[in-house]
Fold this protein.
Amino acid sequence: MPAAVRFVAEEKLLSCVHCGLCHSACPTYLELGTEADSPRGRIHLLRGLEEGRFAPTPEVVRHLDLCLGCRSCETACPSGVPYGQLIEAARPWLEGHRPARARALRRALGRALTTRWLRAVAFAPARLVAGRRWLARLGSLGAYAAALPRGGHAPLPAVLEPEGVPRGSVALITGCVADTLFGATNHATAALLRRAGLRVLVPPAQGCCGALPLHLGDRGRAAALAGELARTLAATGADFVVTNAAGCGALVREWGHLLPGDPMAADVAARTRDALELLAQLGLPPAPRRIEAAIAVHDPCHLAHGQGVRAEVRTLLAAVPGVRLVDLEESDICCGSAGTYNLTEPAMAARLLARKLEHVAASGASIVAAANPGCLLQMRAGAIARGLAVAVEHPLDLLARAHGVG
Ligand code: SF4
Ligand code: SF4
């Protein structure tokens, strides 16, 4: 009999009443149809591990690894089961039950993505050939390179003054992978925030918020990086902290779980908003330029399920002259990107991407708006590989274009 273990408060596991109402919201259950790959099945496994009824066999770890951490089940659950917290708490423990080589590779991936110079080195070859569509013929890694934006961007200045009447200040989280690959979106975000009357502060020495290492089960590194970024952001004294990456926003807003008892992290968390949410709240002046397009909105998991932000994206885009919003079936079902999931679980990520793109094709959209760098890259790569005539854009880039600042 394996030893009992405690990685999460028992009452959180016990809050599941086994109703199964979350099944139809779970991407892996939709694809596989197996109970062990559903939220309820995974909660059963987690409970069994805690109570020592199950051992962390490769099969058990496999079912838990296949979870995207998308939190779609949380939205569906009528009992308020905090599923994201359950799987996050279990992941560091699961790391200890992997073969040493797999563990080392995952650790190295987390380090490479969250260390500025390592990231620059890792992405340098892809940046050289970024945007060349023929690369998609070389397989999925080639498709990701083809999906990368071309050209680099100068870092944002430390302070950008507001346009018009000042309405407060924001500290902008520029992200780690997002800053390396999607610098233009950070510029677009800052320009729109200025247009909304906000003074934008951009701390130059920013690191990762902790989301990527946490996803890979490295809670120690995640907490260290989060604590460092919390201090950097708190030092700005800004009224709001803003991000344009849904995955970062969802974690920063819940830093209290990662950094319990850290008042500075709690304070930053309470001030954090997604850029689209804040812009919708404050309002933008009328956009002077038209975008003639049918736009489908993909809801990134960590924006819709992690932060409850959905309508704001549609409201802002619908206000742009020429835009026609079209429905996207399963708009809030994961595209398979999910942090590092498309690297660690490429087969399931590819199935979910194919599912997403079928819905995109059926929507008749010429543009898909996706407010998260990971989703952008994943869906762009998939669209290029399939020859789908659809552009995948961050809604902030679209808005910046409509406002003549992007
Ligand atoms: S987090 Fe997503 S993949 Fe994991 S159990 Fe919940 S719905 Fe399924
Ligand atoms: S997680 Fe929620 S919706 Fe899913 S089985 Fe448990 S109680 Fe029901």
User: Anything to note?
Assistant: Residues 25-28, 39, 42, 67-73, 83 surround iron/sulfur cluster (ligand 1) (CB under 6 Å). Strands lie at 159-160, 169-172, 199-201, 240-243, 272-274, 293-298, 323-326, 367-370, 391-393. The mean pLDDT is 93. The CA atoms of residues 2 and 55 lie 6 Å apart.
